[in-house]
């Protein structure tokens, strides 16, 4: 009996020891002199943050209580799919939501003003973001200068107001079913009047609408969408980017998740390198070596433009795979994967890919050397797919043995 009790206690202890909390971020508090209150922040740092010295673009997320978890999931998945870079997310918890997210408006119906209560604090909230929160984040975290804001419903209204009044405050806006039933006084002036110099407009504005059909909100959103399209089509010298995505299958609440997902994907579309799959396309660039140089130049320029390091890893890997499929060019795949390894020396995949290229050229010992390094590295990470890398090593060892046996 004592023995059974002893074993039971050991098993319980092992179970408790093995359990670990899954965390996606941490909370922090900032005192705002402008708002005269503490504001709770929810902060997500990307996986590589602790082991790198890179700077990361920042997503400032309104209505964090509802949106933080799905925004983190979207950011991590899109990065895993190589659609966006890693980002920091700063979620801002509400205190007086209606006050902070609504601008003062002479066109607000008195009955609406009475119903809503404390309105018109958007300018103060903009000042809080600009003068207190953003400097606080940039001081305490490795934040790149590239800033995104995401706002839903009244947060979307705030986004529109901020863009019209201070477009330069953020580089990109994810505006989700904005509550444009609430009047913004200067919105009726038209974008040509508000932004007379189109060459200064370099922002990205992504806007969605759910199934809302009541009142004048839908009509105002569609009108604003048309204003954006007309402005961009009229001014070919502007760098302003805009996309409107109607999601009638979503409710006013559910539209938040897909909007953040597709909004982030749209914002970072320009950093996606165009793939040249055929021999003709590769040779048109000047051949494989020039194709490598083009990738390096492209991502160096993009990193300088955006203000943070944009990895060229995905583009190099694509080029390497494409070269392997072209018989008389596949030897250049080794050159590509060597460049990739030099740029990403801590990547076990970089070693694995170089090993694969050597294997395709029947340079089996060099392939084995790289597969061994890759396997040792991946085991240290705890990646449950390490057996795949072991299989590569086992297969190459079998090939080497078969080749040796054949000679004898």
TrEMBL record:
Gene3D superfamilies: alpha/beta hydrolase (3.40.50.1820), Tetratricopeptide repeat domain (1.25.40.10). TPR repeats lie at residues 348-381. InterPro entries: AB_hydrolase_fold, Esterase-like, Siderophore_Hydrolase_D, TPR-like_helical_dom_sf, TPR_rpt. The keyword Hydrolase applies. GO terms for molecular function: hydrolase activity. Keywords: Hydrolase, TPR repeat. SUPFAM superfamilies: alpha/beta-Hydrolases (SSF53474), TPR-like (SSF48452). The keyword Hydrolase applies. It comes from the Bacteria. Pfam families: Esterase. Belongs to the esterase D family. This is Alpha/beta hydrolase-fold protein.
């Amino acid at each position: 009996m004592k023995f059974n009790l002893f074993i039971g206690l050991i098993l319980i202890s092992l179970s408790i020891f093995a359990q670990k909390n899954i965390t996606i971020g941490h909370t922090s508090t900032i005192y705002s002199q402008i708002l005269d209150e503490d504001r709770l922040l929810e902060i997500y740092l990307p996986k590589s943050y602790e082991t790198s010295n890179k700077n990361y673009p920042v997503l400032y997320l309104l209505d964090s209580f509802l949106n933080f978890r799905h925004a983190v999931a979207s950011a991590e998945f899109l990065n895993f799919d190589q659609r966006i870079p890693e980002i920091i997310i700063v979620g801002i918890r509400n205190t007086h939501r209606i006050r902070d997210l609504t601008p003062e408006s002479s066109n607000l119906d008195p009955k609406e003003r009475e119903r809503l209560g404390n309105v018109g604090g958007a300018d103060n909230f903009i000042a809080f973001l600009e003068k207190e929160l953003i400097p606080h984040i940039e001081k305490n975290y490795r934040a790149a200068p590239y800033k995104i804001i995401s706002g839903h419903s009244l947060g979307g209204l705030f986004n529109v107001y901020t863009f019209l009044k201070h477009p330069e405050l953020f580089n990109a806006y994810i505006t989700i079913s904005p509550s444009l039933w609430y009047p913004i006084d200067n919105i009726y002036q038209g974008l040509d009047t508000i932004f007379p110099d189109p060459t200064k407009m370099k922002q990205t504005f992504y806007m969605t609408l759910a199934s809302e059909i009541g009142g004048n909100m839908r009509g105002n959103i569609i009108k604003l969408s048309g204003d954006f399209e007309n402005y961009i089509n009229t001014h070919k010298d502007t760098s302003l980017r805009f996309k409107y995505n109607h999601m009638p299958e979503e409710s006013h609440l559910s539209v938040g998740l897909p909007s953040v997902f597709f909004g982030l994907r749209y914002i970072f579309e320009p950093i996606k390198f165009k793939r040249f799959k055929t021999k003709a396309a590769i040779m048109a660039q000047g051949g494989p070596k020039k194709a490598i140089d083009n990738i390096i130049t492209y991502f160096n320029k993009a990193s300088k433009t955006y203000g943070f390091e944009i990895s060229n890893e995905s583009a190099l890997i694509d080029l390497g795979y494409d070269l392997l499929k072209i018989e008389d060019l596949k030897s250049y795949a080794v050159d590509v994967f060597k460049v990739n390894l030099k740029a990403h020396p801590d990547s076990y995949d970089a070693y694995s890919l170089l090993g694969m290229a050597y294997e395709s050229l029947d340079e089996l010992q060099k392939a084995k050397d790289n597969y061994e390094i890759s396997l040792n590295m991946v085991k240290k990470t705890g990646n449950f797919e390490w057996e795949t890398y072991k299989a590569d090593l086992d297969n190459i060892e079998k090939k080497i043995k078969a080749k040796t046996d054949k000679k004898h």
